[in-house]
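Researcher: Quick test of sequence recovery. Tokens follow.
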């Protein structure tokens, strides 16, 4: 009986010891994890330093890294396998100093989720490399209040990711693309400016929802906005001025909408859309003083609806619409254009439709040529 009691006591003691060991192991694991994921740090660096290694080390351990005010050099900070990171550089100027790598980048086989870069001036130093380049499996990238200058390749370049937001970003004075997105999905560009680049914004084969709002594309040597093979895009409250071509779009397969967009004083077209199968809607758009037609829509097989939009003082037609299916103009004005005010050419009604041209409350006056239909 005593042996039996002793045996039960030993068993209880062993169970208690094992339980305590498990608790200790869990606590140790949590402690290690907490120490590996500290909330934030301000880099201990001096103006003039190369902060590349300091950033790499900090981003391994801290969720939020603050770059203090000052002028720094940086490059080749790889962000593969990084999650939930915030980089703040509000009063810092960071200059690229490596010709082989961007300042921040991921590679095509990498994974990165929930990255925020906020504030700072980022100088590409005319290196033939993007300032930021994120390729591969990336999700939820937010770039806000950045000033990106002096890049030769691209200010920002992303490929094959999802959920991108740019807010308050300025890319200016550059030889390459301000922003180049390829095969990205779900894009928001708000309150940004892309000026004096080769192309302001270039979107290629992007999916999901694309919204560009409250943004400016100014003085770019080629296109203010170039869109190729994207299904849906919405543009609102934007100023697109003094580019070679204001907006150039091709291959839109579902829907494109413009609302309160000004495409003025561009060297060729204010806004040109061609070779599309999607529905096109414009409301309150303006195209003034462009070197070719104000609005040009060519070879688009779905419906085109233009409301309360104006084309004035363009060197060719105000509205040039050719080889489309159904065109509706409501409450528009075409005046003082050197060519036709409204030039409709090759509009054919789809099968089963009696009419393909619907013009209401629209004025065309003081243009260089009589209207064409």
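Model:
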């Amino acid at each position: 009986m005593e042996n039996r009691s002793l045996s039960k006591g030993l068993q209880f003691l062993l169970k208690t010891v094992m339980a305590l060991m498990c608790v200790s192991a869990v606590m140790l694991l949590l402690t290690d994890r907490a120490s590996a994921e500290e909330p934030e740090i301000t880099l201990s660096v001096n103006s003039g330093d190369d902060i590349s290694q300091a950033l790499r080390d900090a981003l391994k351990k801290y969720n939020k890294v603050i770059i203090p005010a000052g002028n720094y050099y940086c490059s080749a900070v790889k962000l593969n396998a990084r999650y939930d990171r915030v980089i703040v550089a509000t009063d810092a100027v960071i200059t690229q100093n490596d010709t082989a790598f961007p300042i921040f980048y991921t590679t095509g086989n990498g994974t990165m989720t929930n990255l925020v870069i906020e504030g700072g001036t980022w100088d590409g130093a005319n290196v033939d490399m993007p300032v930021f380049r994120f390729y591969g499996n990336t999700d939820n990238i937010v770039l806000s209040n950045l000033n990106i200058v002096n890049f030769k390749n691209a200010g920002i370049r992303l490929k094959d990711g999802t959920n991108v937001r740019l807010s308050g970003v300025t890319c200016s004075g550059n030889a390459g693309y301000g922003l180049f997105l390829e095969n990205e999905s779900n894009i928001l560009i708000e309150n940004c400016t892309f000026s004096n680049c080769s192309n302001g914004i270039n979107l290629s084969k992007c999916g999901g929802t694309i919204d560009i709002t409250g943004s400016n594309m100014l003085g770019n040597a080629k296109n203010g906005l170039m869109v190729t093979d994207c299904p849906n895009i919405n543009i609102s409250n934007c100023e697109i001025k003094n580019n070679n071509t204001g907006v150039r779009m091709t291959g839109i397969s579902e829907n494109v909408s413009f609302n309160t967009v000004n495409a003025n004083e561009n060297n060729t077209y204010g806004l040109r859309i061609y070779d599309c199968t999607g529905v096109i809607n414009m409301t309150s758009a303006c195209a003034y003083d462009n070197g070719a037609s104000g609005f040009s829509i060519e070879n688009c097989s779905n419906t085109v609806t233009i409301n309360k939009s104006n084309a004035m003082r363009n060197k060719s037609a105000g509205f040039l619409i050719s080889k489309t299916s159904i065109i509706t103009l409501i409450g528009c004005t075409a005046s003082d254009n050197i060519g036709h005010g409204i030039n409709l050419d090759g509009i054919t009604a789809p099968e089963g439709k009696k009419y393909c041209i619907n013009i209401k409350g629209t004025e065309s006056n003081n243009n260089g040529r009589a209207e064409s239909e």
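DSSP finds two helices and 37 strands in the chain.
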